[in-house]
Write a structure and sequence with these properties.
2 copies of one chain form a homodimer. Chain A starts with a strand and ends with a helix. Chain A has about 325 residues and is α/β, with parallel strands linked by helices.
Chain lengths: ~325, ~325
Amino acid sequence: MARIALDAMGGDNAPREIVAGAVAAAEEGMDIVLVGDEVICKDLLAEHGATLPVVHASEVIGMGEDAGKGVREKPDASVVRCARLVRHGEAAGFVSAGSTGAAMAAASVVIGRARGVQRAALATIFPTPGNATVVLDTGANTEVKPDHLAQFGVMGAVVAEVYVGLDTPRVGLLNIGEEQAKGRSLEKTAFTMLEAAPINFVGNIEGRDLAAGKADVIVTDGFTGNVLLKTAEGAAFWVIGLAMEALATLEQTHLEAVLPALRRVRHLTDSESTGGAHLVGLKGVAVIAHGSSSGTAILNALTLARTGAEQDLVGRVASRLAAR
Amino acid sequence: MARIALDAMGGDNAPREIVAGAVAAAEEGMDIVLVGDEVICKDLLAEHGATLPVVHASEVIGMGEDAGKGVREKPDASVVRCARLVRHGEAAGFVSAGSTGAAMAAASVVIGRARGVQRAALATIFPTPGNATVVLDTGANTEVKPDHLAQFGVMGAVVAEVYVGLDTPRVGLLNIGEEQAKGRSLEKTAFTMLEAAPINFVGNIEGRDLAAGKADVIVTDGFTGNVLLKTAEGAAFWVIGLAMEALATLEQTHLEAVLPALRRVRHLTDSESTGGAHLVGLKGVAVIAHGSSSGTAILNALTLARTGAEQDLVGRVASRLAAR
């Protein structure tokens, strides 16, 4: 059973919702260690009538803080302690809903990259119709080289195998047209490298293909991927808002019939149901949950981390990259 | 009255829907000149019982063709003829629903940039709630320098004044976080330049803010802007599809009550209602309509082009850039 360290102090709803998520995960048989203020954590656990191992951490890196500086200057920050448990083999992975920058910095500095990995990437799993779609990088590296994108293709394929359960995921390169000659010099060179990589490369993919099922993995730099992620969220939110507004004119009986269906749609498209992003390419599993995570979102993130640990995401990424 | 040249041969539904749009525009009092195969255009006009001026063009640049090569090697292509009418002052602007690349190439090569403009940009007007939002560049320049982004900010502000009717549009820089230090070196330098520009610069804007009304103009490079545009389209389409699917389980009477509202939402978010993108920074107005434009979409695009011509978009961009 793979143990997962959980940053109890990170996130808008920390520590209350984080502890609630941990308790729910433990009830499902997961092996969780809470990392944070020991007194607070134990008090909250007592409210649930639960006992979980707690590793004390006296500090927190806030959302607005400089992440690199925070990791260097706060060795006792909860997210740094989480990463250290992974580094020392006391946990197979960690989950944090705190500052994404701090979690990335702690993971990179403390856990370190797996052999052969040039850049760790943030992989987000979109709950698209049919199979989910893995997009990477969604924010770890704002500026990349073509070879980094080729590695992201290989790492993303492993993420889709492990988390989406696909045998030979189709990997696409995010671009502004389907033809090979499209895009920046970055994409033109990466295209050739992705063709040569040990993956099922299906060519260029456009932003509108995200939900169209044309690829299981979409590769891009961390700036563009972050824009794609947030634009999709914003557009989904916008359309649901428009629909709610349009339907508000309905008679009460019709409205009551419709609302449950629309709530299901909202749930399908919200960040809760995705569970979090993965920092992939490290010597350990790292899942970064949404800052606004509820207990349910934390449970989902912990489930993802456990799956990654049990299915040896780390070892598979390293061996696949070595095959290039 | 500003005359607008219309490429009758470009687009998936050309020439039939294009001519239909021209006839509708003429009925509203617009001054249109059709550019395309004279015999075909006159036949279609006769079907409508309409007479409009037609300028003959014997060739077409197809969607799959190399745009630059097409413009060089097909001087009698309809979109090239359109641009030439603008260059020679016989039209104030042109509209094409054909290849975006060909329209951009024809406009740049034949009409040319206005004085002081380093790069023409493609500006798309999103029908966001409240006021529409102008995003540029959505595809003309995949790689740009910080100073180009600063110019896009000025040009985008003029587009929002002319087409959205705003007095002091708020201009934002697309980035992956709100803080000034976020983004690539491109954004970091552009931020300072935009602060110094003669516009109402409101700082960094994220993809999720597109529909949130935080800015009236969003500035970015043509690669990222194109990804944003297509991702928003794809996500909107996805959510509407999910909603339709969820609602399909409703009883017939409820469903009948709901569908008109959802159709309104679909209409609000589809490319039809936006009318097209503007190539801004040229010595003439150029509106590029969606390839799948219907007659109604063409009418909207023609209306935009006329507004741009009548409100002197070209002169205002040049004088505003000169004020930098």
